[in-house]
Amino acid sequence: MRVKFWGTRGSIATPGQDTVKYGGNTSCVEVSDDQTLVIFDAGTGIRPLGLDLLKRFPDGKRIHGHIFISHFHLDHIQGFPFFVPVYKQGNSFTIYGCEGAGKKLENIFVGQMSPEYFPVTLKEMPAELRFMQLTTRPVEVNGWKIHPTYVNHPGLALGYRLDTGSAKVAYITDNEPFRYLLRQQGNLDPLYDDLDRGQVVLEREDKNLVEFIRGVDILIHDAQYTIDEYKVKLSWGHSFYEFAIEMALQAEVKQLVLFHHDPMRPDRQLDELLAKCKAVVAKRNSKMVVNAAWEGLEIRLADNRK
Ligand SMILES: [Zn+2]
Ligand SMILES: [Zn+2]
């Protein structure tokens, strides 16, 4: 079983010389083996994934996939109309996600492909498309269990834990610490003191999420900001590096992959931040592996089906 990163960037696709190493495509992660294809989010990274799938399934071999959407901000759905396998009859995809701003899951995709935005409507796509609206009830895909949970992001957003029976991967993108959001709402004071000391304190809801991801082999977590950036972007729905590390350490995950890189973050700066993150983890005497997601990064995990 493999985990492959096709889009690692948050907010907006960011091509250019400064993002060659970590990539400019927005959120898209593939988790697959010979029998099962799971895709987390359909940001612009799903376009190169679609092209790769055509190569892997030559001569009209049918593709059946399961696409789990975290939420419907553009950086998580914008690549879908450019996902070439949906233009081939015989292929089938099930799309999972929560409702969005009171709208049904399917209607969000219909809306994105209405004629003012895109020349092909959803109905005209030749592949068979099914929509399954989720709350927190787990779903099963070819013997793999996918557990959804709500995360802290403007509007509804889901995080997922995929469990193959022998390997576990958590996809928690677009998630903000609860503590500082409460502070902003005036329920706690004084504002920012622990952030100023560089400390990270988890609220009860953060701890619930820690239990949700406990012991996973790979945690893919939002790490859009530095602490200083975060202080002026409270309630934007994203995490800072130290928070992602704290969540991962408390959950005793084996590998943390920093994800949803800020569009203003050049490769050079990401290199520096990753080195700092590794130093923080070493200082805590943890053996946890820390990585920053880059387009093309592929991690293989043992799978008891093989
Ligand atoms: Zn996002
Ligand atoms: Zn978002």
Can you walk me through this structure?
- The protein is an alpha/beta fold and 306 residues long.
- The protein has a single domain (2-300), classed as Metallo-beta-lactamase, Chain A (4-Layer Sandwich).
- The protein contains nine helices and 14 strands.
- It starts with a strand and ends in a 6-residue tail after the last strand.
- Residues 10-11, 73, 75-76, 174, 260 line the site of one zinc ion.
- One zinc ion is lined by residues 10-11, 73, 75-76, 174, 260.
Helix content: 10-25%
Report how far apart the termini are. Answer: 9 Å
Q: How would you sum up the global shape?
A: globular
Helices and strands: which structural class?
A: alpha/beta
Strand content: 15-25%
Mean pLDDT: 94
- Number of strand segments: 14
Q: How would you write the strand order of the largest sheet?
A: 6-5-4-3-2-1-14
Gyration radius over CA:
19 Å
CATH superfamily: Ribonuclease Z/Hydroxyacylglutathione hydrolase-like
Task: Please work out how many helical segments DSSP would assign.
Answer: 9
CATH architecture: 4-Layer Sandwich
CATH domain fold name:
Metallo-beta-lactamase, Chain A
Features:
single chain; 306 residues; alpha/beta; Metallo-beta-lactamase, Chain A; seven-stranded mixed β-sheet; 9 helices; 14 strands; globular; binds zinc ion
